[in-house]
Specification:
41% of the residues lie in helices and 26% in strands. The chain has 248 residues and is an alpha+beta fold. The chain folds into two domains: 136 residues, Jelly Rolls (Sandwich), CATH 2.60.120.810; 105 residues, Homeodomain-like (Arc Repressor Mutant, subunit A, Orthogonal Bundle). Strands 1, 2, 3, 4, 5, 6, 7, 8, 9 and 10 form a ten-stranded mixed sheet that branches.
Length: 248
């Protein structure tokens, strides 16, 4: 990431980004919560990409260089917190579950960022309490560094529906299945099937945000059937792909 901007104070605001629009690499002295009121937001660092629909938010710690990208029309809500305020004690980017109450608290807090007074301080206190209770979610695509592993990942990024086994993909990358399996666990912290599922979910969110029908998304992302896709999506995000399409 070149031309990295530094902003001492992380913004608290709401703004709209068009599909495909982004915010270039930057970092803050403060922590920041990134939330998509509509659309899907992806946050990329040197370690990989974290992505979140409306039932998730992204915690970006102070000092972390990151960039944002909108999938679909994105209602982006950014909430800055001083570096001394870290309700979950997190020092790496993390995806958090957003309950209906936490969603409304984030929308209210970012909707009038210039306000101050006792009511806003009480709102902020409840928001921090809700953050402390938010479960963490493994919604991330880690970035590989090994060239052989990167070659395999790039193939599947270009076509997430590619059905080939790791052994077959390894033929293109010049590495055996056992070597690649070891690299997936060591570099990415997950097995190949786990990573491929995360990749397919990422592309599914992107396609749904762009208005693609559920059946089309299921096919283009490599699920054997629409029902199988719906089941995996529901277990990952807590609602169905059809519900995702009906979000504001």
């Amino acid at each position: 990431m070149s031309d990295i901007r530094h902003t001492a104070q992380a913004a608290t605001l709401a703004r709209t980004l068009a599909a495909g629009e982004g915010i270039d690499a930057h970092w803050h002295d403060d922590h920041q919560i990134v939330y998509a009121g509509a659309g899907v937001v992806a946050v990329t660092t040197e370690a990989g990409t974290w992505f979140a629909p409306g039932t998730r938010a992204l915690w970006v710690p102070a000092g972390c260089v990151h960039a944002h990208r909108a999938h679909g029309r994105l209602d982006l809500h950014l909430l800055g917190l001083p570096a001394t305020v870290n309700p979950l004690g997190l020092d790496t980017p993390t995806v958090l579950t957003v309950s209906p109450l936490l969603r409304e608290l984030i929308l209210a807090h970012t909707g009038d960022p210039g306000a101050d007074g006792p009511e806003r301080r009480r709102l902020r206190a409840v928001l921090l309490d809700q953050l402390r209770a938010s479960p963490q979610q493994p919604v991330q695509l880690p970035a590989p560094t090994d060239s052989r592993l990167r070659a395999v990942c790039d193939v599947l990024h270009r076509d997430p529906a590619d059905p080939r086994t790791l052994a077959a993909l390894g033929g293109e990358a010049g590495a055996g299945e056992r070597t690649l399996s070891r690299l997936f666990r060591r570099e990415l912290g997950m097995t190949f099937p786990q990573w491929r599922t995360q990749l397919r979910l990422y592309h599914a969110l992107r396609m749904l945000a762009e208005g693609e029908p559920v059946t089309t998304v299921a096919h283009r992302c490599g699920w054997a059937s629409t029902s199988a896709f719906i089941d995996v999506f529901r277990r990952a995000f807590g609602y169905t792909p059809g519900t995702h399409l009906r979000r504001p």
